[in-house]
Amino acid sequence: MNNKYVIRGGHGLYGELEISGAKNAAVAIIPAALLVRGSCRIENIPQISDVTMLLSILRQMGAKIQMVNRHTMDIDCSGIHTTCANFELMRRIRASYYLIGALLGRFGEAEVSMPGGCDFGGVRPIDQHVKGFTAMGADVGVKNGLVCAQAAGGRLTGANIYLDVVSVGATINLMLAAVLAKGTTVIENAAREPHIVDVANFLNSMGADVRGAGTGVIKIHGVDKLSGGCYSIIPDQIEAGTYLAAVAGAGGEVLVKNVIPKHLDCITRKLTEMGVYTSAVSGDCVLIRSTGALRRASIKTQPYPGFPTDMQPQLAAILTTAAGTSVITEGVWDNRYKYVDELTKMGAKIQVDGRVAIIEGVPYLTGAPIKACDLRAGAALVIAGVCARGITEVSGVRYIERGYENIVGKLRTLGADILSVASGEEEADDAEAI
Ligand code: EPU
Fold this sequence. Notes:
Blueprint: E1 3-8, E2 13-18, H1 23-32, E3 39-43, H2 49-60, E4 64-69, E5 72-76, H3 87-90, H4 98-107, E6 109-113, H5 127-135, E7 138-143, E8 146-151, E9 160-162, H6 168-178, E10 184-188, H7 194-205, E11 209-211, E12 217-221, E13 229-232, H8 237-250, E14 252-257, H9 261-273, E15 277-281, E16 285-290, E17 298-300, H10 312-319, E18 325-329, H11 340-345, E19 349-353, E20 356-360, E21 369-371, H12 375-387, E22 391-395, H13 397-401, H14 407-413, E23 417-422
Parallel strand pairs: 2-14, 3-13, 9-10, 17-18, 21-22
Antiparallel strand pairs: 1-22, 1-23, 3-5, 4-5, 6-8, 7-8, 10-12, 11-12, 14-16, 15-16, 18-20, 19-20
Helix pairs in contact: 1-2, 1-7, 4-6, 5-6, 6-7, 8-9, 8-10, 8-12, 10-12
Residues 24, 27, 94-95, 118, 124-129, 165, 167-170, 191, 309-310, 332-333, 375-376, 403, 434 line the site of uridine-diphosphate-2(N-acetylglucosaminyl) butyric acid (EPU).
């Protein structure tokens, strides 16, 4: 059923909140389980629709998956019987590209559909992934929307790979491909996001030899086999940042629990510039206190440890009512401003020119019917609704639920007036994915 969120804005947010496991780590670690001959117990898995989709793909390929509790699963890929992933499910999720690296690494071949992706301005290329697989001895071709990859001699060989652009997806995919390859692989100009370190830690806990994750150079010594083990996914940096932005904009005081404060530095420092108080508490919590009256800011998104592109829309939402004129420069994607028209319907004053958005602060936003066009844009609209005067109706919430576990319930525990109700509207079941 298609739902929409109905939000009566203008309430401050108070209380405590538990952050879920990181989406972008989970969507890599679940395919990484394909490399393991044995059972992996994975804890702190977020309950989001992207995870459900990936688990369905693995199940159809012969994986045994057992729920231990809401956030813990045993995944056993010993009995995988195909190197061809379900195309219908694959095209709905961007992270399905990790199946290429994992299947190539374990079986020396993979046949998967081209991944989808939010429309951030044209194609979302995978040329750097392909360049790396090719350097490792794979023959990679695309026909009829399928990526077909075959390792020479049935096993990849370690290689030195220099990424032309810093890519999270290519870095992780090449790590997955390299752990069971013959010899050593070096990835230079690697991305350094926390979830890259998390995937490396998962692989190492299963018997891989990956060093340097979190720096620009990652070295992987191929091993013959990965066997089972137990691993807990890190907390979601972007989910935490999203709630911090909501509290900053709406005003209030919230203890955000189950986070790694260091991962949030790039976000909390920007909030401090905007006049918000934040402080790390007892190792795994961040306290935020805000009056809701914000100062302008300049933001440029960059690969980690820069300000994350996945927080850009949420910060834009709260800068709409900050005093003064703010400037946002999107440094990762060509066009990640598709939400701007929706915020304009609420009274925001934003001008976009290419990768730059100029936001002229207005005293307040007013509720309106608006539509999410991708995951983070959707989160930004929810934040705008929570902060605005009057009633906001957000449609397109399936995008939001791909990456946020129980966003309505979590906001309600903080005192937000938000409900998920049947929208009565048919939404196209298209192939867009995150
Ligand atoms: N790029 C290339 N060639 C490639 C790969 C990437 O030119 O082969 C370019 C892209 O076009 C982009 C830049 O490199 O301009 C960075 O892309 P990256 O590969 O890092 O992005 P991704 O792996 O497709 C992941 C996250 C995104 C997040 C980006 C950047 C997942 C499943 N997705 O995407 O997350 O925006 O890294 O941090 O991990 C989200 O969670 O909302 C989301 C979109």
